[in-house]
Amino acid sequence: METIVFYILAAVTLVGTVLAITARQGVHAIVYLVTSFFALALIFYLLGAPMVASFEVIIYAGAIMVLFLFVIMMLDLGKPEKIQTPKLYDWCPAILLLVVITGSMGVLASRAATPLNAFAGISVQEFSFTLFKRYGAAIEIISMQLLFALVGALYLGRRR
Amino acid sequence: MTWDAIDIGLMLAKIAVLFFIILTLAAYLVLAERRILAWMQDRKGPNRVGPQGMLQPLADLIKMLTKEDLIPAAADRVLFAVAPAMASIPAILTFAIIPLAAPETIFGHRVSMQVTDLDVGILFFLALSAIAVYGVALGGWASNSKYALLGSIRGLSQLISYELSMGLSIVPVVMLAKSLRMSDIVNAQAEMPFIVYQPLAFVIFLVSILAECRRIPFDLPEAEGELVAGFHTEYSGMRFGLFFVGEYINIIGLGALASLFFLGGWRGPLLPPIVWFFVKVTAFSFFFIWVRGTLPRLRYDQLMHLGWKFLTPLALVNILVTGWWLSLR
């Protein structure tokens, strides 16, 4: 049962992401990407991580993508411009990424897969104890960085 | 997880009953709003269809279903068609985590009166309210009309702003209940409802849910004086109906959540739990209508100032004070 659901969700994620990249209209790309985020969130839920699943939806689909949508709607690009046929030079990052992905897939496939105990389900309490006791310092550093970014953005916004 | 036939049957029954309840309640909330507003403004209101206008929702439904479903020529057809569903589905899904009454024992099974008691209940609610934005935003954008676009841009910025203060105002509730699970939150209020400890959080939550529902005084996205009907200007027939019913389902859902977080949900003396819950939700719905009948619309900058410069800092201070108090206790 869980395997079937997983494959459906994985297919939705992949198709959604591919369509997000190839969509010409910015708003359509966002809708596809949000769809793939939903499927991804459900995959996290299947893996027994409901916290991560809800944060995936709240932060990525609910905050970041909404801001993107806001900007695209404000700019109102109208008709998407004709993009020139990509030259060989433009393909370099894509080829690099392809090499990295095939490499990591190869490494993953060569190892014996340890089956996850399906739907173990980590409670919120366990999750937060691990997060704040074991990785407390890292959390503090990240939150300081976010604060710097916030102040920096405010400064750039204020400067005339 | 092992499921037997009775469990699955009970689950399906719960979902079916819940659907029936919320759709009926939403339909009659529309009628109640029209009658109560009329009463406040010294008018009669709709009282012709059936006794006291009780069949008016049915007549409205028939009218909406039989109207022509217009799609503007310049609209983005697919997004235009799915946006009303995107607006109403999150509102309906919120009810999955709302416990309507105390758990009962049926056929030897302990049945909780909610569809699912998620470990991350509050986060589920926050996620749904975060994605409810898409219906408003995409509906207005896909209409390809200036009024609709302006309405949806307003709606977008309003919903993200007030989501923040709404989320922050529930944090003290989680701190007191020590859980994100809805049943734990209700059980933690067995002795005293949280409104006694958290009056400030309650007020912030109430103002934020008014804004989340896009109701007067926060109905800038559909301000009819300036934007015709805002983001749903171009919609007609049942697609408009979905936006409309979604808004009322949202009112009931958020009222239910407010009573769960601060008033102890279905807990109360003497009367059976379901009656208490119904009374509390009805009281919140009446409050929403009352506010609509009383307050004028805010200006756009006032709306943003209230959200970002007043409610959000206040909610943060409230969290700080609650933490301090909990650590001293």
Automatic annotation (TrEMBL), chain A:
Enzyme kind, highest EC tier: translocase
Pfam families named in the record: Oxidored_q3
Membrane topology summary: Multi-pass membrane protein
Main location: membrane
Transmembrane segments: 6-23, 30-51, 57-76, 88-109, 135-156
Record key words, sorted: Cell membrane, Membrane, NAD, Quinone, Transmembrane, Transmembrane helix
Protein name in UniProt: NADH-quinone oxidoreductase subunit J
Organism name: Geomesophilobacter sediminis
Taxon lineage: Bacteria, Pseudomonadati, Thermodesulfobacteriota, Desulfuromonadia, Geobacterales
TrEMBL record, chain B:
Name listed for the protein in its UniProt record: NADH-quinone oxidoreductase subunit H
Record keywords, A-Z: Cell membrane, Membrane, NAD, Oxidoreductase, Quinone, Translocase, Transmembrane, Transmembrane helix, Ubiquinone
Record-level GO cellular component terms: plasma membrane
EC number assigned by the record: 7.1.1.-
Reaction(s) catalysed by this chain's protein: a quinone + NADH + 5 H(+)(in) = a quinol + NAD(+) + 4 H(+)(out)
NCBIfam families on file: PRK06076.1-2
Keyword Nucleus tagged: no
Enzyme class: translocase
InterPro entries to which the protein is assigned, alphabetical: NADH_UbQ_OxRdtase_su1/FPO (IPR001694), NADH_UbQ_OxRdtase_su1_CS (IPR018086)
